[in-house]
Each structure stands twice: as structure tokens, then as C-alpha cells.
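Progress note, sequence design subtask.
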């Protein structure tokens, strides 16, 4: 669900796992602003994601069957993950554009204590060439 206020926005989402693999869910809330120029736009977003115990444990826990000498069993609890995003779009033509996206997430609570996590932050980048039909 998104609400626009001029060039600013507030967005909320709910994601739930439905296959029975881990039965976790995630609530996300973010706010941002898009600045547009001729053929170029940039969007800044700040947000936080709450992950249920089942989801956090599935992603960052270590089950007994996965234990190694340097990786003990671990069970994660529900946690909040704050993040910041930056996306850039450049229109090459009426139908084609280049999209780039970057995100940094701060790993908090039980996530940063997990033996399979070696950092207090995670980073992601993405770029694509897109055509509208």
C-alpha cells in the first residue's frame, strides 16, 4: 500500500510465506522521495522491516543438521532490520530506460549474533536495461 504526497511517499507491505517451508512473515514500512529531472529520476528511501521469529530463524538460524565445528546451532528471534535505498532511472528513449538500485541494511538483534553472519550490514546492488511494452 502506497501513499503519495507530491514527490514524497509512504509505503507499507506485508509478506507471508505460504508453502509451509518456514511459515514466517515480514512487515515493511518505508518513506522516501523521488526527484525527477528531464530524463532522469532519483529516489531515496528509508525504512524498516520487521521479520517474524520463523522468518528470521529460517534465514539466519543454524539447525542441528547444519552444525559444523566452527558453526554451532543457533536460533534467531524476531527482529527489526532498518535500511536505506537509492534508485536511479535514466530514460534512453520513450520505451527504453536504465535502472540502478542500491540498498544497505543494518543487521540488528539476533541476526548480527548468528554464526553465519560475518558483518553488521548487508549491501545489494542491481542494474538493468528495461523496455516498456
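Output:
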Amino acid at each position: 500500500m502506497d501513499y503519495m504526497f507530491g514527490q514524497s511517499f509512504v509505503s507499507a507491505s506485508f509478506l507471508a510465506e505460504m508453502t509451509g517451508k518456514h511459515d514466517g512473515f515480514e512487515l515493511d514500512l518505508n518513506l522516501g522521495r523521488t526527484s525527477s529531472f528531464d530524463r532522469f529520476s532519483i529516489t531515496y528511501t528509508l525504512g524498516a522491516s520487521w521479520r517474524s521469529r520463523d522468518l528470521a530463524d529460517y534465514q539466519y538460524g543454524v539447525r542441528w543438521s547444519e552444525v559444523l565445528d566452527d558453526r554451532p546451532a543457533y536460533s534467531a528471534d524476531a527482529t527489526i532490520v532498518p535500511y536505506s535505498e537509492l534508485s536511479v532511472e535514466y530514460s534512453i528513449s520513450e520505451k527504453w530506460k536504465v535502472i540502478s538500485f542500491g540498498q544497505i541494511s543494518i543487521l540488528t538483534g539476533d541476526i548480527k549474533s548468528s554464526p553465519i553472519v560475518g558483518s553488521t550490514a548487508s549491501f545489494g546492488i542491481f542494474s538493468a536495461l528495461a523496455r516498456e511494452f
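Residues 66 and 73 are 8 Å apart (CA to CA). Work on this subtask will continue into the next period as scheduled.
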